[in-house]
Records
---
Amino acid sequence: MKPLLGTLYLLGILVPEGLGYDGSPAQPRREVVEETVSPWRSLDTYSYTSYHPMEEIYQWMIQISEKYAGVATMHFLGMTYETRPMYYLKISRPSNNPKKIIWMDCGIHAREWIAPAFCQWFVREILQNYEDNPRIGRFLRNLDFYVLPVLNIDGYIYTWTTDRLWRKSRSSHNNGTCFGTDLNRNFNVAWCKTGASENCHDLTFCGTGPVSEPETKAVSRFVESKKESIVCFLTMHSYGQLILTPYGYTKNKSSNHEELIQVGQKAANALKKKHGTNYRVGSSADILYTTSGSSRDWARDIGIPFSYTFELRDNGTYGFVLPASQIQATCEETMEAVLSVLDDVYEKYWDSDSAGKVTSTAVGLGLLVSFMSIL
C-alpha cells in the first residue's frame, strides 16, 4: 500500500475499489475513525467558525452522513493525483418525482480556505433547518444538493503543511521540476486560449491538455452524467467580493446573460443586507479578467442554465489569508446570497403561477368531463 493511502486508512477513510465514480455511498471504517486523535468528537463540538485540515473535513463528512442518515449521504467521486479519495455529500429527501440538482464545489484553489469553510456551513444550515424552515424545506421537495467541500485536496493539504499560499494542484511536470496545475484553467472550454499559461511554473498553468488532471476528470465525468438534471452550478472561491457569470474566455454573452445578471444582482443585494458587504456582479471578462478553461464557463456551455463563481471576502486587506474571525460573517452573508439564487431557480421551475395554471387546467378538464357525462 502506498504511504498516502496508508495514511488515509489510518484516518478511517475507505478508498473504494477502482479510481472512478461509482455512485455508491462511501463506507467509513468506524473502528479506526474512533481511534483517530482529533480535537472534536462529535458534530455538537465541531466548529464552523474555524478552518479545518483535510483529515477533519473527511471525518466531518462521515459524521454528517451518520447523523443525518437518509437525508445526507457521502459518495465517492474519484481520486486525486496523490491518490487521495474525493467525496461529495448528497442532500436529498425521498420523492416519487424526478428532482433537479444544485451542484456546489469549494476549494478548487488550495489557498482559498474560506471556500471550504462555506461549503461546510452551507451543509449544516440546510440539514439543521430543512424541517422547520419553509424556505429551505420547499427546496428539498424538488431539489437535491451535491456538495464537494474540497475539490483540490492535494493542494489544500499542501497549504497546511508547506506553503499557505499554494494555489494549484500537486501534479508533477517536466520530470519533477515543477508541480501543480490550475484546475480552474483545465476544464474543456476554450482551453488555454486566454488568461492561462502553458508554462508549468506559472500560477495559471492550464495542464498538458483539456481535463488532463484526475480532479477535473472526476468532476467533469460526474457533472456530464447529471447535466440534464443540474439546473445550477455554484463554484466558491476567494477573494474579491464578486459574483461572476459566464464568460471569462470571451466578451460575448451567454444566451441567458441578462437573467444571470438579474439573479446575481438580487443575490448581491440579499448579501449586503446581512452585514453591509458590497459585491459586484458581472462576467469575468467584464469585471475581473479573462480566463479560459474555468468550470463555470464549461458548466454553462454544456447546458447548465445557472452557473456562477462566488469570490468571497475580502477585497485585499487579508486576501487569501482571511482571519478565522471573519468566517461566521462571511458564511452568514454568503448563505443569504445562495438562498436568493435558489429562490430564483426554484421559482423558474416550480413557481406558484405555473402550479396554479396546472391546477386550473386540471379543474377545467374535470368539469368538462363531468358535463359531457350528463349529456
Note: The chain has a mean pLDDT of 88.
---
Amino acid sequence: MLLTAGIASAKYFLRHISRKNTVTQTRRNISQHYDLSNDFFSIFLDPSMTYSCAVFKVEDESLEVAQQRKVNLLIKKAKVERNHHVLEIGSGWGSLAMEVVKQTGCKYTGITLSEEQLKYAQMKVKEAGLEDRITFLLCDYRQIPSRCKYDRIISCEMIEGVGHEFMDDFFGCCESLLAPDGLFVLQFISIPEERYEEYRRSSDFIKEYIFPGGCLPSLARITSAMSTASRLCIEQVENIGYHYYPTLIRWRDNFMANKDAILALGFDDKFIRVWEYYFIYCAAGFKSRTLGTYQIVFSRPGNDKLAYADNPYASLPAA
C-alpha cells in the first residue's frame, strides 16, 4: 500500500514539474483553465467577469459592488493619470482595463494567454467604444519588447501562474518595461514562507485539477525576486486576504445554484464536484488565514513624485 501511494505521489510530482512555465508550456497551462468556456465563467462570476479577490465593506454586500471597490482600490494605488500608458499583465476578460480607461482616459495595453479571454475582452471594448484607448494582445510577458515603456504596470492575480523558477524573469521584465518614474501595482495570493519550499516542490489538488503549473509565492519570494532582478522597492503593502473567503463563497453559491446550466454546457457531475471542492478548499485557506492576498505598490528609489501623495496620516489627530 505504501509502495502504491509512493508511486502515485511520484507520478503527480513528475506531472507537475513537466508543466514548468516556459513560454510554450505557460500557454498550455493557462488554456486548460481559462479557455474552458466564457459562458461557464459567466455563471459564477459577477457581471464584470472579475476573477480575483473582491473587497467587501459589509458582509452581505453584493459581489458586483465588492469587485468594483477592489478595482477602484487598484486604480487609486496606481495613481493613473490621463497622459499615462498602462500595461496590465494578465488582463483577464478586460473589466479592469475598461474601468481604468473610463475613469482616467489613459491609454491601456492588456496581455493575456487565453484566446477565449482575448475574444471576450475585445468584444466588450468594441461594445464600449474604447478601441482607440485599449489594446489587448495574446502575448507572454517575456515577449513584450523592452523598448516599450509604460507609466504604470498592473498585474492582478496573474503571478501565481509564473512559477518559482521564473519569478526573477518576471520582475526583470517589469523593471525593463516600467518608465523611470513609474509605479507597478501587484495583487497576488500568497502562501506562508514556512510552507513555501515544501509546497513549491510538490503537487496538490489545485495544481493537479485546477491550475496546472500554478505556484503561490510567499511574500519573501516576491521580495527576493524584486531585489535580485530589479531596482524596484516597496512603497506600500496591504493584505486583503480575509476578503477572499466571502468572494469564494459567493462564487461557490452562484456555481451550485446553476448546476443545470453547467451540465448543459457539456460538463459532467465529476467536474461539478471538483470545482465545488476547489471553491471550498480555497475558502478554508483564507478563512483560517493560511493564505493571504497582498496588494503591493512598487516604485524605484528617488521617485520624488510620490512625496506626500495621498498622505494616510493627514486626517489623524496629533498624539
Note: The chain has one domain: 17-300.
---
Amino acid sequence: MQISEIFSNTLLKGQVAIVTGGGTGIGKVIAHQLGSVGAKLVLAGRREEVLKKTEDEFVSQGFEVLTVPTDIREIDQVENLVTQAVNRFGKVDILINNAGGQFPKKAEELSKNGWDAVIRTNLNGTFYVTQAVGKQMIKQGTGGAITNILVSFLHRGAPGIAHSVAARNGVYGLMKNLALEWAQHSIRVNSIGAGLFITEGMQEEMAAADPTFIDNTIKAVPLRRVGNLEELGWLAAYLSSKASGYITGENIIIDGGNSLGHGITFFPY
C-alpha cells in the first residue's frame, strides 16, 4: 500500500480510530488511509493471526496500532475492545463499522440459521459496537465520527442476498436515528454506500462463481470501471475529519453512478 498524498498527513493527527474488520480487505484499506493521515489505529477482527500480520505491516510504516481480537456479535468482547482502546490511547474519536458478512442464497431456500447469522453480525454486531463506542464518546464530551460501510444498492435490493440487504437497511435506519439522537453530543453518524470494489481474493472468488460477473457489472456502471480501494479510503477519511463537520445522517454513495439505475451514457439518436 502506498501512503496517500490526497490529504495532509496531519488531517487526523491525534485522533483515535477503531476499525472493525480492519485486518483485511476494505477495512484494512480504510485503516491504512486513516493511519496515513495521522490517526492512531485500533483494529478489530476475529482472526488474531491476520490482525497481527496487518499490525506488523502498519507499524513498519510508522503507524501507531493496537489490535484487539473481537467477535462483534459478543457484547463482552465489544466492551473489551473499547476498554483496550481507551487504556492504550486514552480515548476514541472515530469508529468505522466495516465488519460483516454474507453469502448468496435464494430467499425461499434461506434457513433460519442462515438468516440469524447474517442479522447477528451485520445488524446486531454493528449496533453493539456503535453503542459501546457511543457511550465512550458521550462520556468524553468531545464529539466523534461514526461511519458505517454499507452497499450502494441498499434501497434497490439484489437477488440472492435478501438477508444481507435487510440487515444493512437496519443499519441504515440506525444511522439515521443515531445521527438525530447523538447530535446533541456532537457525534456525527454517517454511512458509505459502496459499489463494486475488488479486494484481495475477491476477483478469484467471483471468477470461480461467475466469470462474467465483473464485466457485466462494469457495463452497468456509467463510469465503466470498478472502484479503486483508495477512493473508498479517502471518503472514509473525509467523513472522519473536521472537513465533514456539518455532515451527519447521510449515506454517501460511491459506485461510479451504478445506483442511477442504468448504464446508458448516451442515447443513440
Note: The two ends are 45 Å apart (CA to CA).
---
Amino acid sequence: MDRLSLIFWLWMLCFGITLVWTLVQVTVGWAVGARPVSAILGYGPTLVKCHIGGILCSFRLIPGGGAVSFKALTEGAASRDSLLQLSAPRYAAAVLLPWVVQVTIGMACLGASKALHQFASGFAMPFELFLLRDRVEHFLALIQHGERVTALGLLSVKMAAVNLLPLPFFAGGALLFLPWRKARPDWVEKLALISFAAFMSWTLYVSYLVITTLF
C-alpha cells in the first residue's frame, strides 16, 4: 500500500470511530431525556458546518475525537445544560453507553477475549510512553497489510479505555464525580485543566510518532 492510501485509510478509520461515537452519544442523549444542541467531529479547522435534525454539526479536518453539547442558550435566561438536569442513573448512562458501544464494536472485530484484553491494557497506554512507537508502527502495519477490521477493533477499544480513565476531562472522570456534576469543586476544575493539557501533550506526541513513521 502506498503512503497516500495509508493516510487515507488511517483518516477513514479515525473518522468512522468518531462518527459512530457521536451518533451513539446523540441517540443515547435523546433516549435518556437530554436534548443535543451541537456536535463537533474532529479537531482543527472546520471543513463543513450544517444543521442535521436540529443539531449544529461541525466536521473538522483531523478526526479521532469529538464532543456533543447539551447546553442551550435561551433568551433572557442563563445557559441550561439538559444533560445535567437528568437523574444520576440517566446521566451515567449517557456518559457510559457510547463507550460500551465502542467496546462492543471492538469485540465484533477482534473477538470477545482479545478485545477485552486490549481494552484492559488500554488504561495503561497513556503512561507507557516507551511502548508508544512500537504500538503506532504495529497499528500502521495492520492498515498497510489490509487488516483494516483488526485495526478498527483495536482503535475502538483503546479509545474507549483512554476515555474511561478516572480523570475529570474524560468520561471516566464524569462518572467518578457524578455526585458533584452540577457544582464541581474548584480543585476538580483545576484537575480537569491539568488532565486536558496532559492529554493534548500525549496526543501531540502520538501525532509526531505517526508522522515520523509515515514519512
Note: Strands lie at 38-52, 55-69, 71-72, 80-81.
